[in-house]
Specification:
Length: about 250
Amino acid sequence: MTIIISYEEFAELQKKYPRTKSNDFLMPAEIKKLIDFRKLSYFADENALFCFVQREGFSKLIFRLRDYCATLPAFSESFSTPIAAYLVYREDKPPAEDEKWLLSQGFSHSLKLVRYTAHNIKSERREDGISTATAREAYSMLFEFFGAEEMDLPCMEMYDGSAFCTRADYGSLSGVIYDLGHTRIVAVSPAVRGQGLGGRLYSAFVSNALEKGKNAVFSEWIRPDNFSSIAMFEKLGFVKDTLVTDCYVI
């Protein structure tokens, strides 16, 4: 496994492999940050390009295959944390061959998320009791409620301060919302669930985003069995669209 040392090096690597057999989902700005923090490494041969993104608690696999005969490099067995691979697809066109390939490499299906989208959500003033959380606070609470591969958080060094929270009387977090840029992760302590805290946190995020002049289109990934979150987002005006993402872990 080789550490990628420049964006130009990574761009040249990508050119050598087709996108047709790929779960490639890295934006240029994210690539540059990962390279700066030495969090992006790769393995390449005549059949495939495998990139490993080191997150807190797991490694995210990005692959580009020339053919499904490609095999995961043997050194991946020595990873001390889970490896997670994501497939994003339209509901009516599931990626059958990509899934078969991942399963043949020893991956197991972990979870499915469905995208919900809303347009023109109204801005609301941030409510009392909502404050900002540090990276360490946000990560600590999210790891308490989610598996690392389920969150797909950026590495801690890339944290940009965009986490809102509520706190218990003794100062610890009772709820947190972490803005990933393309989606959000919300966690609420079991002791205070059912009190509308998730909706308050999301309203704070929306208000902050609109104050910054961001696009008023919001998309969120939700587990299909997370009925309370689905109800909350539908109340806010979200509707299910056709995009689905599956996570596979090894």
